[in-house]
Amino acid sequence: MAGYNMSLFNQRLNALLQNKLWLSGQMDRLRKEYPDQYVAADQGKIVGHNKDVAELMKSLREQFGKHIDHMAIDFVSAKKIVLILPS
Amino acid sequence: MSMKIQGIIDIEGSIIFASHLLIESLNISSLIPFQLDTGASSTIILDSDARRLGLDYSTLTPTTLAFGIGGSCKAYVIEDAILRFSSIYGEWSLERPTRIMVLDHKVEEIEDIDTRRAILACPSLLGRDILGRNYTIAREEGIAILEI
Questions:
Q1: Which CATH superfamily is domain B4-147 in?
Q2: Which of B69, B84, B114 faces A79 most closely, judged by CB atoms?
Q3: Cα(A2)–Cα(A12) distance, rounded to whole angstroms?
Q4: Cβ-based contacts under 8 A for chains A and B
Q5: ipTM confidence
């Protein structure tokens, strides 16, 4: 793949996975702090939250620039919901 | 030739893979996490990710109704999507052109708050169109290795 930086690509994908993993481990706490909001996480901390994901994205871009897609962004349901999907 | 992709197993036991989504016609280039769903016939972008990516449903091609959480919903198809994955050691990448589905549950119109929550919390799904017929999944120490 000419001109494509595999190392950077790999780092960004891994960062997204690690952020997702961290965020999934925080859900019980986040349910109390940010019920029914979208929460963004990066490097082991919450970097933004909003009830509207479009507003959250706008705010994150203003704060961190356009390269924010490695951040994990999840909806934090106030009530724990189990999604049953085969995997 | 097969390829191994590394994912994570989250606290709920779900297997998550990260990929780069490219949709030239919509000017979209973004990383996106997918939950592995061997029961899904195609790869699907759910409501929250569609909003996060800024997808405008009015520009998408409608397709047959989809059924899932909360009953039926509007479904759209993107014909020119490309998903790019990184191999386990990061030395090369795999590009898969795919016909990706996008769901719109019209969440604002759903009265039951728990159904609304379930839909918004639902991750995008990596389906059998990417997995193919001869995939294997190995789990080891919190990570998942998908071979496709």
A1: Acid Proteases (2.40.70.10)
A2: B114
A3: 19
A4: 109
A5: 0.92
